Amino acid sequence: MKKLLLALAVIATFFSQAALATQTIKANVNGMVCAFCAQGIEKKMRALSQTKDVYVNLKQRIVAVELKDGQSLSNDTVKDLIKDAGYEVTSIEISSHPIEHIKAEMEPK
Question: pTM (2 decimals)?
Fold first, then answer.
């Protein structure tokens, strides 16, 4: 019985941590050519109540939006905001890494 309770406690801890894991939406964007472009997208993304942090890499054409704990944001919402700003989203992916990790990946080695 003790082993069962211990196993259940471990499983519950794992799932509660997974539920609180960082969620970052990373979009590849065409059309960003200057700092003004990047600032416009960043401003729109930061205005969302679900947003914890935003990272825009002009050279790599990446927009990453880290969500606050427990918040969600649809890919379509991200695509629509970027499209409304005048740019095209070519792909979108969900990452469990925070913005700082994504920034580190983008820096030249």
Answer: 0.77
